[in-house]
Design a protein that fits this description.
- This protein is of the alpha+beta class.
- It has ten helices and eleven strands.
Length: about 300
């Protein structure tokens, strides 16, 4: 395996192939939003994510409080995408020498706030020094019935929650000098990037109602994450661009908001497939979670 020549997706596929051995108690391994192992009463979900300074965040643009929140919430989003409830977290943290104590306090304050909101307990981890700030969080959750990426079928209706593209638009504003509090009209976009909210309640509801055949969170952008659903399910997909959920804020600040909605990423909404005729199961979820049907699954590749 030549790591230097592999892109991220190719690397994941290569790792998945080489570490595909079955193990007693393992229900679902590499390839979904979380791994699943068999628990005594419910399935145990495990996920981890990595944030590296100057790769995934820029310290001067991302206030430490919001970075602490986001570091946990991106992992909670993976649990939400499986229809699970997060329970515990482990933190791996590398800090630059001489980093201001106020920054560290802000980071942990945000992390604690996000954990308390989700009912998650930090139970351990490791701290070290490095040339860049590195945050690695592992979250452990549980699910009675978990939802995979691989269950979509041709003809299924594709739904998504919330707005798409807001986070990418928020990052563009940050890079051009925008800051929270300067313009209330821009704050929605800035917060979408700085402080994304995991859709835990929606994921739990979809699991409880047995409404979603397949699901994923929109961490990489609609075009990429829908491709993941199609690849795992062996289907294609058709999207109606006129139905993309675009916020008034992104329409105001972006000339071509559809591009960010399709390819922006980091919105951490839920994208899922529903069997035709079963839309009635999610009627009660449409308004509170701002659900919108944006297309349907097809046969083969699209």
């Amino acid at each position: 395996m030549n790591l230097r020549s592999l892109r991220e997706r190719e690397l994941i596929l290569s790792i998945r192939k080489e570490f595909s051995a079955r193990k007693r108690g393992l229900v679902l391994g590499i390839g979904d939003d979380a791994a699943v192992i068999r628990g005594p009463k419910a399935s145990c979900l495990l996920t981890t994510d990595l944030l590296i300074e100057d790769v995934h965040f820029i310290t001067s643009l991302h206030p430490p409080h919001y970075l602490g929140r986001k570091s946990l919430n991106v992992n909670l989003s993976d649990i939400a995408a499986m229809g699970g409830r997060p329970r515990f977290a482990l933190l791996g943290l590398a800090l630059r020498k001489g980093l201001d104590k106020a920054w560290v306090r802000g980071f942990f304050g945000g992390l604690k706030a996000a954990a308390e909101e989700a009912g998650v307990v930090l139970i351990g981890g490791d701290i070290s020094a490095a040339k860049r700030i590195v945050v690695s969080i592992t979250v452990i959750g549980e699910a009675g019935t978990f939802i995979r990426r691989s269950g979509a079928r041709p003809g299924d209706l594709i739904f998504v929650s919330g707005h798409l593209g807001d986070a990418a638009a928020g990052l563009r504003l940050l890079r051009s000098g925008g800051r929270l509090g300067q313009d209330r009209r821009a704050d929605q976009l800035l917060r979408a990037f700085l402080d994304p909210a995991p859709q835990i309640d929606l994921g739990l509801a979809l699991s409880r109602l047995k409404a979603a055949n397949a699901m994923i969170d929109t961490s990489d952008g609609l075009s990429v994450d829908l491709l993941h659903l199609c690849e795992e399910s062996g289907t294609g997909a058709e999207i109606d661009l006129d139905k993309l959920p675009l916020s008034p804020a992104i329409r105001r600040f972006e000339k071509k908001p559809e591009r960010l909605a399709l390819h922006g990423g980091e919105d951490y909404q839920l994208l899922f497939a529903v069997s035709p005729g079963l839309e009635n199961r999610i009627i009660g979820l449409i308004k509170p979670f701002r659900l919108r049907q944006i297309g349907r699954m097809t046969r083969g590749k699209s």
